[in-house]
Amino acid sequence: MRHPLTRFVVTVLLWLPVCFAVWYFTAPLLTLPMQWLALAVTKLGFSDMITDVEKSGTLFSFVTNLRPASATSFTAGKAAVVVDSQALVYTYGLPLFAALTLAAIGLRDSVRLAKVLAIGYLVLLPFQTWGVMADALKQLAITMGPAIASQTGFSPFEREVIAFAYQFGTLILPTVIPAIVWVLTERPFLERMSADLGVRDQRSGIRNQGSAKP
Amino acid sequence: MIKFFILFLVIQGVLFGGELTEPGQALFVLPWTNFLATLSADLVRGFDPNVLVSGKILQSTANGFAVSIEAGCNGVEATIVLIAAMLAFPAPWKNKIIGLVAGILAVQGLNIVRIISLFYLGQWNYNVFEWAHLYVWQALIMLDVLIVWLLWVRTLPKIERSGPGDPPPSSAPAAA
After folding, report:
1. H-type helices in chain A, by residue range?
2. Model's pTM, two decimal places?
3. A96/B153 touch (CB, cutoff 8 Å), yes or no
4. CA–CA separation, A147 and B111 (whole Å)
5. Whole-number Å distance between alpha carbons of A42 and A25
6. Is the CB of B138 less than 8 angstroms away from the CB of A168?
7. What residues contact B109, with CB distance under 8 A and at least 6 apart?
8. For residues B138 and B134, what is the distance between their CA atoms, to the nearest angstrom?
């Protein structure tokens, strides 16, 4: 495995299962700051409808003051809509980032490794929180039907924005942000690998030229 | 570097927004997803005749298990990321076009492997299917995009390879 890129890809693939396992078992702890962030966002922008953000393991529950569609006049005073969001769906980019970082830095430079992993974790947190928040808002404004949506007071345009934020937070952000953060934090490694590849290409070019001679 | 990332995010946002519109879905996403299902079924039939395809649904006639290829599983988003990364990177248009054609083939090729593997994983063990579907394959597809982009960047002429944020190779003094 002399080719630097092949070596790098194989190392990432070897680290991925380890990183996925560590992420899965530590996720209840790793997602704790997401709960604080979600609570802060809720207080700032949605306090008129979301009253609390609870967390059980990696499952976020957004407690609202909206009345369920099936509530009768007897239960309406007590019943409230609660929507759940699974944080794992928005945080799986973390093991990808960790595997890329481990493959680039290795275990020898443990101080730098810890620093980059911590930076990556902190940078990813707001985007992961975006995912669970957008999921909860999408459920309230769209999925749960007109009886709930009408209580939220969102305009049709705001519902479109929520739908876009949800799709973007589900399909793009979980994997793209880790890749961007990795490219930014490992630029020296990328330049080194690019240089290694260039030297290798030049050498193979010289060899090919040599063998082509009669 | 900042210019590259801003351009990357803008192109990505525009393409992703276009994909989500009704015309985008009707004219491109749905036909493409149906084509992927048909192609996957044709490939599977090479070694397993017990497969049916209906629109974007792939079904086993042996046990009734079916997978529906939804958003995120049709490789469109990964392709959008790759297109945005190549268009935003300063490179000659010839390199961009070659890179896009080869890159899209690489991403969609691996996506076919994802669809077929999920079809069989689901028939074997639903928990494993869920894990592979929601987390593992998503990460692998993005890794594929990243590798394709890195390979493409190394094929660029030297000036482009010096990095989008680096100063241009000019002998003129910087303005004071």
Report:
1. 4-30, 32-45, 88-91, 93-105, 110-138, 146-152, 156-167, 173-185, 187-212
2. 0.86
3. no
4. 39
5. 27
6. no
7. none
8. 7
Provide the residue type at A154 as one letter. Answer: F
CA–CA distance, A194 with A197 (Å, rounded to integer): 5
Contacts of B128 in chain A (CB under 8 A): none
Here the tokens at position B126 are: 């639903």
Residues of B with Cβ-Cβ distance to A191 under 8 angstroms? 163
Q: Rounded to the nearest 5 degrees, what angle is found at the Cα of A101, between the Cα atoms of B78 and A87?
A: 60
Q: Which residues of A touch B80 (CB under 8 A)?
A: 172
- From first to last of the 176 residues of chain B, give the pLDDT tens digit: 788 889 999 999 999 999 999 999 999 999 999 999 999 999 999 999 999 999 999 999 999 999 999 888 899 999 999 999 999 999 999 999 999 999 999 999 999 999 999 999 999 999 999 999 999 999 999 999 999 999 998 888 865 555 554 443 333 333 33
Stated as kind and residue range, the H or E segment containing A54 is strand A50-56
Confirm if A165 and A83 have CB atoms less than 8 A apart. Answer: no
Helices (H), B45-136: 76-88, 93-124, 126-131
CA distance A173 to A168: 6
